[in-house]
Specification:
two-stranded parallel ribbon; 3 helices; 2 domains; 12% strand; 129 residues; 2 strands; alpha+beta
């Protein structure tokens, strides 16, 4: 069973589907970023389609969503055009934290502080604050 195969019936019969494989699984390739991977895939599509289908429709599932988005952007400077971009359950975009402490750790510390204050007010125990 292929990944994404439940989605194949959703595509029209006359629309060819190309599933791109991670290059690291088939050859020795070093790709350092999502943008580099998108350009790598764009070049594969250009050579594979060879001008036969200038319009491509891109589908990204889960963590493939950001890659599909970058691939769509990379097609702006190519002979291919992005006819549509569909993202299914992509991860939310967020800016990297400026702190080395994760947001969850900071939130846990804040909750601990609030809990300690609440306990100290209810029990008159001042050691928790």
């Amino acid at each position: 069973m292929q990944v994404g195969s439940p989605y194949l019936p959703c595509f029209p019969d006359d629309m060819p589907v190309v599933a791109l494989q991670a290059p690291e699984l088939i050859e020795h390739t070093v790709i350092g970023s999502i943008r580099e991977r998108a350009i790598y895939y764009r070049n594969i599509l250009i050579s594979l389609l060879d001008g036969r289908k200038p319009i491509v429709h891109i589908f990204g599932l889960s963590f493939g969503g950001p890659l599909a988005f970058e691939l769509a952007i990379s097609l702006q400077h190519s002979p291919l055009n992005c006819g549509s971009l569909c993202l299914s359950d992509p991860p939310p975009f967020c800016l990297p934290s400026k702190s080395t402490t994760s947001t969850l750790t900071m939130r846990a510390r804040f909750y601990d502080f609030c809990f300690a204050v609440a306990i100290s007010k209810q029990t008159n125990f001042q050691g928790g604050v």
